[in-house]
Amino acid sequence: MRGLIESIAAALASDGLILRGGFNITDSEAAPPGLSGAPVKSVLLVGQAGAESWPHFLRWRENQSQTIVNPLDTWSREVIGAVAKDFGARAVSPSDKPYLPFQQWAMRAEGLKPSPLGILMHPRYGLWHAYRGALLFEDEIPVQPAEAAIHLCDACVEKPCMKSCPVDAYSADGFAYESCLAHVRGTEGGACRTGGCLDRNACPYGTDYRYSPEAQAFHMASFAGL
């Protein structure tokens, strides 16, 4: 008989999404509320690796109003929400307010560390992955604790992700948001608008999972408000 986690994974796979690990919340931790309002005991992260979910999103979008704000968030909420309903969980999203600590959850669930770009570096997917939501359970479910993953950035001497942006958006001082935004919106930002962040694309890891130019252009347009 298929177990709970395997069944959830199979349900998500029909829309190109995957489970991204999880963890059990200890008695000493503050826990968000579940469906009934009681503190949750288990968290399962949901996301994507590469662009597996992209065609599923596009098919959904064909039948939606083109005026929807943040359509990818809307699609993710619908898909993950339906799975949550089937399995008695509360679905939450990274963009829900008040914000939940998704970055910390993700590092805990998969043992990952941030890259110089702030995106978590995955030993297989590189920078080409994302977290789209989480399933919160009021009952404790069997979750395999994550071990610390190999952090590929430690072995990367050249750091091309810090040298490819024409306006040096990423540096030891952090992310120069205003400079990046102005460049992407400006006349010199065409390559970023159509093919995605040059620094991200310069990373040598996980290239088999790189998003398509179409998908990257969508994300860049969302970032720039275009």
What does this structure look like?
The chain has 2 domains: 4-150, no CATH class; 156-224, no CATH class. It has 8 helices and 8 strands, in the order αββααβαβββββαααα. It has helices at residues 4-13, 54-62, 71-87, 102-110, 177-185, 190-195, 198-202, 213-224, and strands at 18-24, 42-49, 90-92, 113-114, 120-121, 129-137, 170-171, 174-175. The strands form 3 sheets. It has a 4-stranded antiparallel sheet with strand order 1-2-6-3, sandwiched between helices. Strands 4-5 form a two-stranded antiparallel ribbon. The chain has a two-stranded antiparallel ribbon with strand order 7-8. The longest helix has 17 residues, at 71-87.
SSE arrangement:
Elements: H1 4-13, E1 18-24, E2 42-49, H2 54-62, H3 71-87, E3 90-92, H4 102-110, E4 113-114, E5 120-121, E6 129-137, E7 170-171, E8 174-175, H5 177-185, H6 190-195, H7 198-202, H8 213-224
Largest sheet: 4 strands, antiparallel
Reading the helices and strands in chain order gives HEEHHEHEEEEEHHHH
Question: How many strands appear in the DSSP assignment?
Answer: 8
Helix content: 25-40%
| Poorly predicted sequence stretches spanning 5 or more consecutive residues | none
Cα gyration radius (Å): 18 Å
The rough form would be described as globular
Oligomer: single chain
Instruction: Count the DSSP helices.
Output: 8
Distance from first to last alpha carbon: 49 Å
Instruction: Please state the structural category.
Output: alpha+beta
Q: What is the spatial order of strands in the main beta sheet?
A: 1-2-6-3
What proportion strand? Answer: 15-25%
Mean pLDDT: 95
- Count of distinct structural domains: 2
